[in-house]
């Protein structure tokens, strides 16, 4: 079995999405104390250590910004469990940010127990462009994983999903597409990815993965190729330090 974990960390601010924490800790959006971050990291690493995934895919990780006292969260997450750790800014290589810019340091990352083949790819549209294109290969494993974090703007997001569908079609391979799709309009937004029949929505009908006060939405999505359908299992794990929940994929 190959286990993959995906999580939107919410920059590890320790805000669980409830109104009580959004109001009581609103200042953490502009200044997150290091103690709050290390507490959140301890909660995250405890869950990851228990799950013991082969690959851990993370979005909304802070490599050090003006809003978190320039604290690099990555080195304290992986530990000895993940000898491979990679993180890059999610806004594209052509956008050079000042260290004092609000978005500086805002990154996506992946951690792996063994070396993997991976490429950084950048969507044409939107501000959040980074997509990790990862290959896991071995005696019993041959998987392609695309890790995404799509735009909040519906028109930009539609073009990003169309482009992603083209990338998936590049190979007839066992594929997982996972990430924060921000599909506020529901599964109909995923139609370009599902139209060919190559992928199915593995966490369709499961509990919502995002919370804002009483409002819930299924924004974090796992699409798995049909050849994996009978052997794949997706579960959801709560993250008290984030307004998103974690997806655990066993193949």
Automatic annotation (TrEMBL):
GO molecular function: endonuclease activity
Recorded superkingdom: Bacteria
Keyword Chaperone: no
Pfam annotation, one family: Exo_endo_phos
The entry's keywords: Endonuclease, Hydrolase, Nuclease
Record domain Endonuclease/exonuclease/phosphatase: where: 40-244
InterPro entries for the chain: Endo/exonu/phosph_ase_sf (IPR036691), Endo/exonuclease/phosphatase (IPR005135)
SUPFAM superfamilies (UniProt xref): DNase I-like
Keyword check for Hydrolase: yes
Protein name per UniProt: Endonuclease/exonuclease/phosphatase family protein
Species of provenance: Fulvimarina uroteuthidis
């Amino acid at each position: 079995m190959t286990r993959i974990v995906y999580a939107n960390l919410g920059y590890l601010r320790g805000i669980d999405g409830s109104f009580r924490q959004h109001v009581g800790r609103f200042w953490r959006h502009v200044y997150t104390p290091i103690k709050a971050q290390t507490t959140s990291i301890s909660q995250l690493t405890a869950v990851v250590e228990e799950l013991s995934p082969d690959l851990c895919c993370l979005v909304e990780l802070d490599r050090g910004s003006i809003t978190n006292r320039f604290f690099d969260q990555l080195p304290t997450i992986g530990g000895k469990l993940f000898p491979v750790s990679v993180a890059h800014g999610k806004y594209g290589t052509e956008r050079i940010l000042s260290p004092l810019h609000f978005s500086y340091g805002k990154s996506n990352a992946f951690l792996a127990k063994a070396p993997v083949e991976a490429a950084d790819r950048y969507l044409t549209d939107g501000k959040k462009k980074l997509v990790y294109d990862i290959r896991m290969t071995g005696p019993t494993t041959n998987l392609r994983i695309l890790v995404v974090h799509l735009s909040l703007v519906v028109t930009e997001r539609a073009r990003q999903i169309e482009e992603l569908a083209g990338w998936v079609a590049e190979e007839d391979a066992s594929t997982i597409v996972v990430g924060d799709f921000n599909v506020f309009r529901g599964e109909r937004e995923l139609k370009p990815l599902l139209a060919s029949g190559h992928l199915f929505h593995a966490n369709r009908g499961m509990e919502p993965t995002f919370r804002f006060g009483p409002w819930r939405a299924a924004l974090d999505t796992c699409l798995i190729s049909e050849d994996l359908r009978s052997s794949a299992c997706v579960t959801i794990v709560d993250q008290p330090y984030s307004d998103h929940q974690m997806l655990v994929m066993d193949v």
